[in-house]
Recover the amino acids of this structure.
């Protein structure tokens, strides 16, 4: 099993590149939303499905808040493949946000 930590970087510059109040207000929940949207899509789960669908695929979300997440993967290969896809997804979707991630192996 692998415990991974994800963090979104670049929120402030993302916000300051717009002068539209509507866009700034929408950014408030962007970090958390984009992490889980990317995780679902990268894991091959429909982005509108529940988190329980991820657990069926060996991915368990332990904690999430404000663009950070701790996720437990059943295998390191799954972590590597999904994390790489998530980083690409987030960059393409937002054009400026970056995903930083790291992992440690853990035992039961």
């Amino acid at each position: 099993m692998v415990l991974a930590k994800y963090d979104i970087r670049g929120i402030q510059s993302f916000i300051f590149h717009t002068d539209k109040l509507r866009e700034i207000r929408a950014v408030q929940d962007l970090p958390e939303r984009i992490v889980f949207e990317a995780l679902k899509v990268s894991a091959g789960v429909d982005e509108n499905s529940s988190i329980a669908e991820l657990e069926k695929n060996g991915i368990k979300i332990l904690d999430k808040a404000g663009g950070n997440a701790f996720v437990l993967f059943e295998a390191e290969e799954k972590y590597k493949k999904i994390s790489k896809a998530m980083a690409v997804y987030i960059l393409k979707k937002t054009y400026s946000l970056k995903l930083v991630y790291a992992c440690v192996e853990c035992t039961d």
